[in-house]
Amino acid sequence: MPSSHSAIIIYFATFISLQLFNITTTSSPSIKLLSFLLVFIIALLVLWSRIELGHHTTAQVLMGMLLGTIIAVFWNNLWVNYWMSFLHELKLDGKLRYDELEIMWKLTDKFIKVRGLVEE
User: Fold this and answer.
1) Are 80 and 22 in contact (CB under 8 A)?
2) What is the rounded CA–CA span in Å between residue 96 and residue 77?
3) N or C: which end of the chain has fewer CB within 10 A?
4) Residues 39 and 60 in one domain
């Protein structure tokens, strides 16, 4: 029933917009506002195209928008309130070197093989 294209594009537009205003950078508010408007104009064009091309009804697009917005707000809150602080505690905030990434890759590969998720 809901348009998955609408849900996905609104999810990304909402999440990106929330992140734009969450981060503390030296970017001016006008740059953030311009970025926000650009993201949502592109998203609205995709939504319009879904209806105009006859792939979805207005109700399907609206339901996709609602679903995408709810998931984006939920994920943003989860990211800001839990995951970012967790990553900072692990000291994984952009300071990984090649050897650390290689160790993480080997551990992931070993986990997948032990669980039998991929045949060797």
Assistant:
1) yes
2) 25
3) C
4) yes
Residue 113 and residue 28: Cα distance in Å, rounded? 48
At residue 35's C-alpha, the angle toward residues 30 and 40, to 5°, is 125
Domain check: are 78 and 103 in the same one?
no
Cα angle vertex 115, ends 109, 75, to 5°?
Answer: 75
For residues 117 and 73, membership in a common domain is answered with no
Find the domain containing 109 and state its range.
91-120
Q: Angle at the Cα of 108 (from 107 to 111), degrees rounded to 5?
A: 85
Total count of domains within the chain: 2
Alpha helices in the chain (DSSP H): 4-22, 29-52, 58-78, 84-89, 98-115
Cα(49)–Cα(26) distance, integer angstroms? 35
